[in-house]
Structures are given as structure tokens and as C-alpha cells.
Known about the structure:
Layout: H1 3-26, H2 36-39, H3 42-54, H4 66-72, H5 74-86
Amino acid sequence: xxAHKANNTKEKVRQLQRKLYLAAxxxxxxxxxxxxxxxxxxxxxxxxxxxxxxxxxSGGIDQVxxxxxxxxxxxxxxxxxxxxxxxxxxxxxxxxxxxxxKGNVLNxx
Length: 109
């Protein structure tokens, strides 16, 4: 992907984010019911992948790592997710919760 196309993709995602943000700010009671078709857009999925990749995201409960996805092909991975989303068959795995010890926290009442 060339630099111009990458920047254009990033800008399209930002435009969508801005539209949603402004609509929510205009009406605090606004609810978004029709975003599903936006989620499976190829540019949105690719931007999400880039962000996960950039922050070194770790495998979820399914233990699939970034390296696993890259080894098997990022495009194939995203196409599979896109297809599942479009068909209404995508069901995310449960979140793996990790508790972080807080040390000696005073219990003030």
C-alpha cells in the first residue's frame, strides 16, 4: 500500500469518527443503531489492524498472536472477519480479564 493510500485510509477513518462524535455531541440521547455496516468496511478493518499492530496488542482468550496472524496472512485474516461480519456470523470471544494488584491501598471511609 503506498503512502498516499495509507494516509487516505487513515483520513477516511478519522472522518467517520468525527461524524459519529459530532452527532453524539449534538444530541446526548442519540443512539447509533446502524454502525454494523461501517465496522466491516475494509478500510476500517485495516486501520484497526494497524492500530493493534502498532501498540503490540497481545493475543486474546483465543491466544492468537500478531505473529500468528502475520504468518497466516493479514489480508486473509481481515477478509475472514469481514465475511463473518457481513453474514452476521462473527461472535467475538469473551474478554480475558487480568487483575492488576494495587499494592498497599488505604481503605479510607
